[in-house]
Specification:
This protein has about 260 residues and is α/β, with parallel strands linked by helices. About 50% of the residues lie in helices and about 15% in strands. The longest helix is centred in the middle third of the chain and has 20 residues.
């Protein structure tokens, strides 16, 4: 096996789309400390990579992500320091996904449970193949999914989130779409086409506009209504001075395709 194959995370960028692949199928792509550190490092590099405009978060094998590595956690039962560092590292990665200045699409094939479900909820968009399942089952093993509920409760209604958290039961992909955890559910053979068509559509936009828009979306969510309107009005006014906004408006009025400079 090559060194590249042994990495917990694989990264490939093509045509403005970076595919970030969880690459430990034999461990159900669990979020071990090594996997989390690999994700964190990759996200830091992608944030600085001007050739990357959209990220697809994918997985190798038949499980998207089974959450934390319980064997690793059990081996460290006596180390509160390790357990805290693990959950803090996981929280860091989830925030990196949200704060990444490029949209992130989860390509979900298989099961996404606990912190794996959290990872899906943290992405900006999610497409799941039919047959995928989701759960926050920590309650079943005496460890309530407290950190996963942060992302979950910001994506679905309170009652749907609480049902998942309190019962620990699996939901199917159609239910996940119904409650807003994923955007689309497609047949397995259509998964890549759907995901990469969506990614290509987004990659064709101004990278500067995507960055400003994503940041503004998450910031205004936490504001009172009046503050949100004040903030977004200022964002739009400032964006109007950007080259891409002026180019986009001119291209629309001139009935031509815009020539984005991504600034």
């Amino acid at each position: 096996m090559s060194a590249a194959q042994e990495r917990p995370v694989r990264v490939r960028t093509e045509n403005g789309i970076t595919t970030l692949t969880l690459n430990q199928p034999e461990r159900r792509n669990s979020l071990s400390m090594a996997m989390l550190e690999g994700l964190s490092s990759a996200l830091e590099k992608i944030a600085r990579d001007d050739s990357s405009r959209v990220v697809v978060l994918a997985s190798a094998g038949h499980v998207f992500c089974a959450g934390h590595d319980l064997r690793e956690m059990r081996d460290k039962f006596d180390s509160h320091e390790f357990q805290l560092a693990l959950f803090q590292q996981c929280s860091k990665v989830m925030q990196q996904v949200v704060n990444l200045p490029k949209p992130v699409i989860a390509r979900v094939a298989g099961v996404a449970t606990a912190a794996g479900c959290q990872l899906v909820a943290s992405c900006d968009l999610a497409v799941a193949e039919r047959g995928s399942r989701f759960a926050t089952p920590g309650v079943n093993i005496g460890l309530f999914c407290s950190t996963p509920m942060v992302a979950l409760s910001r994506n679905v209604s309170r009652k749907h989130a609480m049902e998942m958290l309190l019962t620990g039961e699996m939901i199917d992909a159609d239910t996940a779409e119904h409650i807003g955890l994923v955007n689309r559910v497609v047949e397995p053979e259509a998964l890549d086409e759907t995901v990469y068509n969506m990614a290509a559509t987004i990659a064709g936009k101004s990278g500067h506009t995507l960055k400003i828009g994503k940041e503004a979306f998450y910031r205004q969510l936490e504001m009172p209504l009046a503050d949100a309107y004040d903030y977004t009005a200022r964002v739009m006014a400032t964006t109007m001075t950007a080259e891409d906004a002026q180019e986009g408006i001119s291209a629309f009025l001139d009935k031509r395709d815009p020539n984005w400079q991504h600034k």
